[in-house]
Amino acid sequence: MANNNEQTTSTNRILLKLFMTQIGAISNVIEERGKTIFAKQNILTTEEITDYSLELLELLVNILHADENIDRRGPEYQALRRFFTEFSHQIQVRGGSLEEFVRYTQFLQRVFIEGLESDENLSFKETRDVLLLVATIFNDITMDVFRVYLEEKEHTIQVQQEEIRETSTPITEIWDGVLTLPIIGTLDSARTVAVMEKLLSRIESDRARVVLMDVTGVMAIDSQVSHYLIQMLRAIGLMGAKAILTGIRPEIARALTSLNINLGDVVTRSTLAEGLKETFQYLGITAGAATK
Amino acid sequence: MIPGLHLTPIGNNSVLLEPGEGLDPSAPDNYLAELMAFLQEHHADTLIYDLKTVPLIDQVYYNWLIRLYRLCLLANIEMIAVNFCSTAAFALSLSLTESPPFKCALDVESARHGIVVLA
Q: N or C: which end of chain B has fewer CB within 10 A?
């Protein structure tokens, strides 16, 4: 174990020596590369690239200075990983691609490895140890970059799903006290709850007397979905509004009969237009052609 | 005067019931006989139950409403629940396995004008 520690110390020192003797050259190379990749596409300014390059080298030196061994759980190592996490996040937010960023980190790794060639006194074993150390650090960094990328993607998908959910159930007041709710796609528990909350609040605030629920856009129905539909219709009724279900396509009707779902108490009409006629009749509104 | 229940004859043989904070829905027997007497005394044919101040209807409260409905049925009185809070309607619809037997209306005015629905 002691021997192992000695070897690691030696590896740290070799890397540290490499940095200290070539820090100017390394700094210039990585800064230039950063400008080529990020500044040309206006993802980062040249000042930002200079700052990032200097901060990166400082963090690496801190790690090598910190201890005999590189402690991957130590604060210096975590600071480096945090640096790359924030750096890659910023690149993504500004429209940079993951591929470019990974290539940049690979380039950084290559710069450090190439620096080894300048020291002819290094033995094969020392070179191998330094290579392993550099590879370990950059593997962790690459994994962090991918994690950030995936998190960002997941966040984007979540936001898009929210938007789709919002736009797929637009509640519109089409007449005084008449709301329409076209349901498109599939109803699941989460969506039913969201739609019901929104719809009941609208009935309350708009003092709606009729709600037309159009299911023309519902592609498939099973016992769970029909259960959700009945819950929605019941909630509308509790609010004192009349619910009219429209647009039950033949396939949906067939599915409902096979599921033994009784919609006997529910007012149904074949199309939204028929539902509207029923609404007008219920409200005592007479619609006729305009006369000149 | 029934503690916990505020009763107001509002014309056309309708009585408005507004539950107060003192109402204990878990003990319907404490109220039903007196309530029946009041309704008969005022020749009521409609009982409008105002749920404006009830944010949540749990099983106990729902059972109280059902007992009240049955009482009205015996006395040939129509019971209409009005002003359901959206939160109460939402929670109740999730727990119900069958439609409530009483009628519902948007508000007291709708109930008075017979604009009622069965949930």
A: N
